[in-house]
Amino acid sequence: MRVLAAMSGGVDSAVAAARAVEAGHDVTGVHLALSPSPQQHRLGARGCCTVEDSRDAARAADVIGIPFYVWAMADEFGRDVVDDFVAEYAAGRTPNPCLRCNEKIKFEAVLDRALALGFDAVVTGHHARLEQTETGPRLRRSVDDGKDQSYVLAVLRPDQLAHAMFPLGDSTKAQVREEAARRGLGVAEKPDSHDICFIPDGDTAGFLRKHLGETPGDIVDGATGEVLGSHSGAYAYTVGQRRGLKLGRPAADGKPRYVLDISPVENTVRVGPAEALDVDEVIGARPVWTNEPRTEPFECVAQLRAHGQTFAATVTPDGDRWTVRLHTPARGIASGQAVVLYDGDVVIGSATIEQARNAVPA
Question: Pick from 282, 273, 286: which is nearest to 300 by CA?
Answer without folding.
Answer: 282
